[in-house]
Write a structure and sequence with these properties.
By secondary structure, the chain is an alpha/beta fold. It has 3 domains: 96 residues, Alpha-Beta Plaits, CATH 3.30.70; 437 residues, Rossmann fold, CATH 3.40.50.200; 81 residues, Sandwich (Immunoglobulin-like), CATH 2.60.40. The strands form 8 sheets. Strands 6, 7, 10, 11, 12, 14, 15, 16 and 22 form a 9-stranded mixed β-sheet that branches. The chain has a 5-stranded mixed β-sheet with strand order 26-29-30-24-31, with no helix packed on it. Strands 2-3-1-4 form a 4-stranded antiparallel β-sheet, covered by helices on one side. A hairpin with a 2-residue loop joins strand 17 and strand 18. Helix 8 packs parallel to helix 10 and helix 13 crosses helix 14. The radius of gyration is 25 Å and the shape is globular. The N terminus is likely disordered.
């Protein structure tokens, strides 16, 4: 049995949350100005990230082609003169070429971003100023590591799978799945009877994610992919394995980029820290954070083991898929350049939700408590880290499909855990969803950041509220059995061993919102509804619950409650009104989806000559299809058998496709056949 650990307010990674204003209005950043300084002390020596102006495109492409992608110079004389002075030894694109997605990469301008590496002895400010004077340069930023604000060496409260399964009990609440540890997950269905309640710290029925009503309508869908940007997700965890995204075009340890997406061995996602397809959850300094987050979203439901996930399937349905995007590996973290690659990778490989329990500290972080304040405004953040913003915009604009369930992607971030009256960035970015945390009685979690930038809140636990200062009697009972906690229980991994455990933080609130979003998109697919990402954000906000009636009086909690000498702190709950967003509600969201959005339609297809592709028509059309016709059979042919549409490409060209249902309704799409095209629906 592990000893009691110092609780982490996980989700307080030193790069933290993005958000939206509560009235869903767009806030467009002011015109970018280059920062007077490049960054702080953690800026990577000998590295600068450059975005060139569009008119430099052909010169850069020619040099990149000549060098095979391993250049030392740009091919632009004035730039190369500066690179010579700096002693540059590497000049490469930030984003590798992915033939399938290169067109939209260029459309978004991401092909113009390069990273230059030079003599680490060069003065960074001087190098920055030299490059900023070049007329061909559009934007500049430093490269820096993403730092975490939680302790990566902490030992989590952990129980193995075997131990969890051996002592499962039940409570009065009737649960819809047979997962034996689901009773600990008050955050899904809170009946007001949780044993961690006290006279000081109450529990109120309904302070949860609204899963009870939602699960009556939908439990998940394997076509919905959530990218977890975090520590690695243990893809072999017995309660996650069936809901892990798999890149079928790749094999582990093969040492090659079999699918041509620019990444080697990325069968289960990618480790952007070490630039390898081998993700790792056993490194020194692990917390199991990514695995915990993934479980809240998509732990496998109704499998007779462990816990449940909000969109983990059950009742005859597979759950949504978890894609591992590893930003942290042991004590190491990726750089801003690799983080940007990770966001684009997620969009290009099918993810429609970006789950991000990390970000910069809030600008209103308490420096006395050891927090270093982050950017204060959207304009400041965009000026300091333009690459990060453009990568986020790429995901928001290009994830999903115009013909799928959602056109664009949802970027969901934790607001931060610095007890601060402002969300952190990127969470505070107006195109993202910033998530604050609440306790089991609707009150703001003691540690949670809050502010006008926060769009939604969700259960995140509050051990400073529910715990007893200076004692451990709230951890284990007299038999050494883990007690129920006022924190979030989910899948976990410790020293390579799969299990379960408790964490708290906006990091834990954030995956509740991601899980609700994924469940909503799964139901939208089931109902043949289509949304833009902005429409779906608005629907999530409009169906969330206003809980400000509970923001009355004072709330008492104990900061650093592990100490017997902890000082009680009083929260004035009125200060949080208008600054916690609304409580995300899965049930209300799903009920609203039926009458929202638009009917889905058949997607267009772009396919290579000689290739064949298939489509399950029931995913797009409610009526049974009886016939398919192509206007020019010399370009392609189409057949329908058992509800599956098969397209066979013959020669280059473009033709129209018509699918007729049994009622006589016709649905139309366009088939484009061209050499080098991918085999997929657009």
């Amino acid at each position: 049995m592990n000893s009691v650990f110092k609780y982490l307010t996980l989700g307080a990674l030193s790069l933290m949350v993005v958000s939206c204003v509560k009235d869903i209005e767009r806030i467009e950043p002011a015109e970018q100005t280059r920062p007077a300084i490049i960054a702080g002390e953690d800026a990577a020596a000998g590295e600068i990230i450059i975005k060139f102006k569009p008119e430099m495109e052909e010169i850069l492409a020619a040099e990149f082609t000549r060098s095979g992608g391993k250049a030392t110079r740009s091919g632009i004389p004035s730039t190369d003169e500066v690179l010579d002075i700096l002693g540059a030894y590497s000049f490469e694109r930030v984003f590798p070429i992915d033939s399938t997605n290169e067109t939209r990469t260029r459309e978004a301008g991401l092909h113009l971003w390069y990273i230059v590496r030079f003599d680490e002895g060069e003065d960074m400010q001087s190098a920055f100023e030299r490059l900023s004077q070049l007329g061909e340069v559009d934007k500049l930023q430093c490269n820096r590591p993403i730092a975490r604000a939680y302790n990566p060496n902490a030992n989590p409260m952990f129980v193995s799978c075997a131990e969890a399964d051996s002592r499962a009990t039940t409570r009065a609440t009737e649960w819809p799945f047979n997962d034996p540890e689901i009773y600990r997950q008050w955050c899904y269905i809170n009946d007001g009877t949780a044993p961690f309640a006290s006279e000081r710290a109450g529990v109120l029925a309904g302070s949860d994610a609204g899963c009870a009503e939602a699960w009556e309508l939908c439990t998940g869908d394997e076509d919905i992919i959530v990218a977890v940007m975090d520590e690695a997700v243990m893809w072999s965890h017995p309660d996650l394995a069936d809901n892990i995204w798999v890149n079928e075009g790749e094999e582990l340890y093969a040492g090659k980029d079999a699918d041509g997406n620019g990444y080697v061995d990325d069968r289960y996602g990618y480790n952007f820290v070490r630039n390898t397809g081998i993700t790792s959850w056993t490194s020194n300094g692990r917390t199991g954070h990514g695995t915990h987050v993934a479980g809240t979203i998509a732990a496998v439901n109704d499998n007779g083991i462990g816990v449940a996930g909000i969109a983990g399937g059950g009742k005859g349905k597979r759950g949504v898929k978890i894609m591992t995007i590893q930003l942290f590996d042991g004590m190491n973290s990726c750089s801003l350049a690799m983080e940007a690659r990770a966001m684009k990778y997620a969009a290009d490989n099918g993810a429609v939700i970006l789950q991000c329990s990390w970000g910069y500290n809030s600008a209103k972080s308490n420096m006395i408590m050891g927090y270093t304040p982050g950017p204060a405004t959207e304009e400041e953040w965009a000026a300091l880290y333009p690459l990060e913003k453009e990568a986020l915009d790429y995901f928001i604009n290009y994830a999903g499909s115009p013909n799928g369930v959602i056109d664009g992607g949802l970027a969901i971030f934790a607001s931060g855990n610095e007890y601060a009256a402002q969300s952190s960035f990127p969470a505070a970015y107006s195109k993202c969803i910033s998530v604050a945390a609440v306790a089991a009685d609707y009150t703001p979690a003691s540690y949670s950041n809050y502010g006008s930038e926060v769009l939604l809140c969700a259960p995140g636990g509050d051990l400073e509220y529910y715990g007893t200062p200076g004692t451990s009697d709230n951890i284990y009972d007299e038999n050494g059995t883990l007690r129920e906690q006022g924190a979030i229980y989910s899948t976990l991994v410790l020293d390579g061993v799969a299990g379960y455990g408790y964490y708290e933080g906006t990091s834990m609130a954030c995956p509740h919102v991601s899980g609700i979003a994924a469940l909503g998109l799964a139901y939208a697919k089931q109902q043949h509804r289509h949304f833009t990402s902005e429409e779906f954000r608005e629907l999530m906000y409009n169906t969330a619950r206003d809980i400000e009636e509970y923001f009355v009086g004072e709330k008492l909690y104990y900061m650093r409650h592990e100490s017997a000498g902890a000082t009680p702190i009083k929260m004035n709950l009125a200060d949080y009104r208008g600054k916690m967003g609304r409580l995300a509600d899965a049930g209300a969201l799903l009920k609203a989806i039926d009458g929202s959005g638009r009917d889905m339609r058949l997607p267009n297809i772009c396919i290579a000559p000689g290739a064949t592709t298939t489509l399950n028509i029931a995913d797009y059309i409610t009526e049974e299809a009886s016939n398919a016709e192509v206007s020019n059979s010399e370009i392609a042919t189409a057949t329908i058998e058992a509800g599956v549409l098969t397209i066979s490409a013959k020669s280059e060209g473009q033709t129209s496709l018509s699918v007729t249902t049994k009622s006589g309704t016709k649905h139309h799409a366009t088939i484009t056949v061209r050499t080098g095209a991918g085999n997929g629906w657009l």
